[in-house]
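Provenance

Sequences were taken from public entries as deposited. Structures were produced by running a predictor on each sequence independently, with no templates supplied. The record for U11/U12 small nuclear ribonucleoprotein 25 kDa protein from Gekko japonicus is shown for reference.
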Amino acid sequence: MAAAEEEEAAAGGEEEEELAHEEAMELWQAGLARLVRDPLLCDLPAQVTPEEIASQVALEYGQAMTVRVRRADALQEPMPVVVVQQATVLDLKKAVQRFVQLRQERQSGVQHLSWRHVWRTYILAFGSEKLDNDRKTLREYGIRNRDEVSFVKRLRK
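Predicted structure for U11/U12 small nuclear ribonucleoprotein 25 kDa protein:
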């Protein structure tokens, strides 16, 4: 009989944890909603990630910069990608991947995009200069805050 009481108590404890989790999630969502209403963070979407909040705060403190990335077809407006001031070309590529992934998840659910194919077919370019060295910093190419880079079709060798 004592074992049955212990099982009931254990089951009741699980329900309390679930309720506590639901309450925590409600508090978390309410906190995020307050954060997004802040004038400094109002550019962020409703389903904001902690990474996006950190990027926006780094932008405000001058620790990061926005690089606008234009697609090769130029049909859409440039993507505002946030990277740290000392970012390399590889960091920019990863930020572009993350930006596109988040946008796809928010618009139409999860879709798979072969980034290996994208980077084999296209290269990023700043003006007429191709960003072909992944280890080189964006500053070495002369890229500053709010500059625009674009996808350019790679030439076959």
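Residues 1-37 form one domain.
Helices lie at 2-37, 50-60, 89-108, 115-121.
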